[in-house]
Write the C-alpha cells for this entry.
Amino acid sequence: MHLKKKRNICVITTVHYVYDTRIFHKEIKTLLNYGYTIIYIVKKSPINYYHPNLHYRFLKNSKNTFWIRFINIVLASYYALKMNASIYHLHDPELLPLGIILKMRNKKVIYDI
C-alpha cells in the first residue's frame, strides 16, 4: 500500500488572536489531528498549547497603528516566503498581495475570510 506524504501548511493571520476559535480551534487543531505539520504566523501572545507538529512564528503585538500593521504584513511575508510549505492559508485581506506573490511562485494558496 502506498502512503500519501503528509503536507506542511503555513497558516497566516496578522489580525486575529493566536487562539481564535475558527482559525486555531477548528482548523489548526483538526489538521494537527490528521498529522499535518503547521507553521502558524500570528501576533505574539502567551502560548499555552504545545504540539510537536505546531511551529509558531510571531509578529509584533502592540497598539494597532498603521505602522505596526505594515510591519506585521512585511514580517508575515518574510516568514512565509522563507518557508517551503505545501499550502499557504491566508486569513486577512491585507495579505492578498502576499497570496499573489506566492501564486507567482507556483504555491498553493487558500484565502479564507
